[in-house]
Design a protein that fits this description.
The protein is mostly helical. It has 17 helices and no strands. Helix 8 crosses helix 9 (160-182) and helix 10 packs parallel to helix 12 (226-241). The termini are far apart.
Length: 323
């Protein structure tokens, strides 16, 4: 049974809300919630008043209280998300919307706001990339500016600001690259040609160039050089693309002999070990990665290895039970 006194206070709050007296309405809604804190509508209505007053921090508190009162009351998630959006806390806003959508996946208000906020996030990221690229250009980091603008283009292809900046920096980058390539020795030239072949998805051709680079470096006693590490790493990527798992394992192992904590090599080797059903070795590499600092591993590698660890543990246990 609803609390009659609380409902009466809510009705008074509604009257104040309709009259545009939002502060007075808030007092009534909060008084109702004090009498019965299990009714989410009291907090939801108070949050709506705070929104009208532009009080997003107070709206956030009311939204959280609304969800606390009833985790299945979807409007509470909408109120909280609106408050977080008003404070430009877009990442937390998205999390709140996803929590609400887990309760009611087809809710149109939550879906619409999520789409809007994702677009805002994309715009902010593009603006950040453009500012960074401009700073890099001003500081003479032409290659860095080109990479940053490429990231921006992936998010917003055809953006006139990005295109204008690219038109300004690209000729400088191409001239710089021409000078750099002209100064490469034969080994580095093979590595460069391998990179170009890889980008063109010509993995067999890339392997041929990387192999020539590696063989020459071995003959010169430079098989532990930085160039050799890059060539081994890139050839491992090519082997992985064509499902040559033994080749991937061999080249990743060569990389790890030079750089014992090379995350990319450990992840690739773990995937290759799984591909040839050497599950314990794969699990060992995955655990090595997960034991490293998160900042070194990165979110994507961490999530991938965490998933692999769960999958590999199940596989290993199943194999044990079959003995």
């Amino acid at each position: 049974m609803p609390n009659a006194q609380a409902e009466a206070l809510k009705a008074q709050g509604n009257a104040f809300f309709k009259a545009g007296q939002y502060a007075a309405a808030i007092e009534k809604y909060e008084a109702a919630a004090a009498m019965d804190n299990t009714v989410p509508a009291y907090w939801s209505n108070a949050a709506a008043c705070h929104e009208k007053l532009g009080q997003y921090e107070q709206m956030e508190a009311a939204g959280r209280n609304c969800i606390k009162a009833d985790k299945k009351f979807v409007k509470g998630y909408f109120r909280l998300a609106t408050a977080l959006k008003g404070q430009n806390n877009l990442s937390e806003c998205i999390k709140t919307l996803e929590s609400g959508l887990s309760v009611q996946s087809a809710n149109p208000d939550l879906k619409r706001m999520k789409k809007e906020v994702l677009e805002l996030q994309r715009g902010e990221q593009v603006a950040t990339y453009c500012r960074k690229a401009d700073e890099q250009m001003q500081g003479g980091d032409i290659a860095g500016a080109v990479k940053t603008l490429e990231l921006a283009s992936r998010l917003d292809a055809g953006n006139p600001d990005i295109d204008r900046m690219k038109a300004k920096v690209q000729p400088k980058f191409e001239a710089m690259e021409k000078r750099r390539v002209a100064g490469l020795d034969a080994n580095a030239t093979h590595k460069e040609k391998g990179d170009d072949a890889y980008k063109a998805a010509n993995f067999e051709g890339a392997i041929d160039h990387y192999s020539k680079c590696i063989d020459a470096l071995k003959a010169q006693g430079k098989d532990h050089s930085e160039l050799a590490l890059k060539a081994y790493s890139n050839r491992a990527a090519c082997y992985k693309q064509i499902s040559n798992f033994d080749g991937t394992i061999g080249d990743c192992t060569a990389v790890l002999e030079i750089d014992h904590e090379n995350v990319k090599a450990l992840v690739r080797r773990a995937q290759a070990f799984e591909g040839v059903e050497r599950y314990r070795f794969a699990l060992q590499d995955v655990k090595t990665v997960l034991a490293m600092p998160f900042e070194k591993v990165g979110r994507s590698n961490f999530d991938m290895c965490n998933g692999m660890q769960n999958r590999l543990n199940r596989t290993v246990q199943q194999l044990k039970s079959m003995r």
